[in-house]
Amino acid sequence: MVTITASTRETPYYPVTPTTEFPCDFPIFGQNTGEFPATDLDVEVNGIPTTDFIVVATFVDGISTDAIVRLPSGVTGEVIVRGMRTPRRTDQYANGAPLPIPAHNYSLNRVEATVQEIRRDTDKASGGLKAETAARIAEDTVLHGRVDKEIIDRINADNALRSLIGQGGAIEVPFYDSRLAASLANIKLGIKSIRTGGLASPGDGADAFYIEGDATKPGGFVSVGGRQWELAVNVPTLEMFGAKGDGTTDDTAARDAAYEYVGINGRVNLLDGKTYLVSNNDNPDGVTFEGKGQVVTAVPGGFWQRNTYADSQQHFGREYLSRAFDYIRNSQGGPSGTLKVRIFGDSTIALDIDGTNERPDDCIRQAFQDLGIPNIVVENQGVSGSKWGDEVYPAGHITDYLDGTTGLALIKYGLNDAYLGIDSLYSSMDTVLSSIRSHANGSLGAISIILVMPNSTFDSPNSRDVRWFEKVRQIYRVLARKYHCALFDTYSPFQDSQPLADLAMDNPYGDGRTVHPRGNMNRWIYGELMNTFFAGKLVGYKTNGFANEGAVSTVITAATMPSAFKSGNYHNRAVVANGWPSDGFVISEKNVDGGVLQTFYGYASGSPKIFQRHAVLGSDNWSLWTGTPQPIALSNGWVNQGDPWDIPLATATPDGLVFLSGLVTGGTTASGTIIGVLPAGLRPAKDHIFVVGANGGFVRISVHSDGTIKAMGAVDGTWTSFDGAIFRAA
């Protein structure tokens, strides 16, 4: 007797995480050699039959009770493994051979399995027939019911409708505690949308709305019965894609899924108190993060937050201009440090629309000079019609210009990239900027880069209008941060180009379309750029410094050395107490090469004197004042004659003449005697002989390049005068 046990020979699974192996939970038939056991199985994944699987099993007497179906990759949703009746399932005993008991049992087990599968399929078929019959009976009941019942039903329906209208609210959408719970539910047919309270559990930050659709889209899932649901929210959280936000779990995959879901220029909400650890800062779609959460990457020594309100600024990245400022700081005193600026771009860079020398390079060069940075070279490498996607420039790639002497590069493309689309723009920019920064002379320490966004244009037939420019901002923002470039937003401060044809913009097609900035617009654009990144940041670097300060602000001392002054022109108050010749004013003028001239003038009545001194190059010292008498050091017994006569003095004029004055007496009178010595700086280049007055008439004295004043022949010891001796200082 053979007893047929109850079995559907069918095992369903509903994995919520990617799973590859599914046990059969019923016997299958085969041999270690010979018939391949997969012919006894049928596998469905989310309602779709598949043959892409293998069976792993051990067989004893041709039967396996531990068979496992192994798929090539993990799946979620619904997987059904069932026994499958095939023509190959046959049993035939060999003639003339003994009949082993295991062989007989094997055949009976095959018969049992076949009967079980027939019953399974029959039950399904009969169950469907019963359901159809019941449905038809119910339909007939409605169609052939009493007329008064139909009237009552209609009245009730009208009342229900009025009640709903009175509530003013929406009909409830089915709610599940979590997406996991929804995936395990047999959601009724006819329901097209559901709500969930979380991903794996209520309140985990992934409460969302789903509609029936494509489960393969990011955030989608499959419920029991193979029904597919897709996420339907405007601003998702990373939790909806599986992020943990605990600061330790790698949430990169969830972030990337969110990028794919929201698309270009989309938005993602970061929950307050959450920290999402990711492995990189990629953001190819220019997605904006909102909310108070943090996206961080691990860096040497800690973590770095990648979502920052700093990126919401119109222009940013001044911190990336160190190399340019190094050139500015070190270059103005000599040509070895000349700041070289190269500008790359399309026709908005290359063309001088008005022929008035107002191209971008002209504007930038003039602005640097006006800011007191004259030692600068600006080269225009613009090419009409070029774009980020182009590979060839006049002399090759941008990298061909990275010669180690270029301190600042401005790159302005993006206008002619419009027809290629936003994905192409990102790819091209990423490639070009990567090639620059990976170059030996392209690192952040070797060259500063300003990404200049395309200016606003009105050229709809060529896709170059505000619809394009509103898209590109996020792409520029992401890549500026990725490659450590400053960003200048040309579009937003000069957004409305549509009415500017033949005014601030050109009219290249003659129909009111605008493409190229004219001279005045170039000055506005690049004046704004210079104000943003350089004006006000050049204190201490510029060569045209100016200050006009009174006593209430600054009173400098006469002992202030030349090195204390910056290049430019400075006016200050001077008082005797601080070492000046008298109370008055002093003007200090310093050249970029180090020369300094100080001019002092008094303001008191009766003192219209002007004194000057200059810095001695090669040392941080001043020359003697011109206009201020300096005493002559007497020797060999010579002394001052005394009142009412002046003491021996040497006085220089601004043009270098030295006047001697004073009366001396009492010293050695023999020829060749040194009477006195002049101060350094007030000595002639060559020797001179002068005839001067004396008590007995006139005598001769000589003045020498070493500063000595000597008697030529006998001089008068009663008194001898220095007045009248004039020579040019060395």
From TrEMBL:
Organism taxonomic ancestry: Bacteria, Pseudomonadati, Pseudomonadota, Alphaproteobacteria, Hyphomicrobiales
What Gene3D superfamilies does the annotation carry? SGNH hydrolase (3.40.50.1110), Single-stranded right-handed beta-helix, Pectin lyase-like (2.160.20.10)
Q: Where are the transmembrane segments?
A: none
Q: Which SUPFAM superfamilies match?
A: Pectin lyase-like (SSF51126), SGNH hydrolase (SSF52266)
Molecular function terms from GO? hydrolase activity, acting on ester bonds
Q: Which residues form the SGNH hydrolase-type esterase domain?
A: 343-518
The source's domain of life comes to Bacteria
Q: What is the name of the protein in this document?
A: SGNH hydrolase-type esterase domain-containing protein
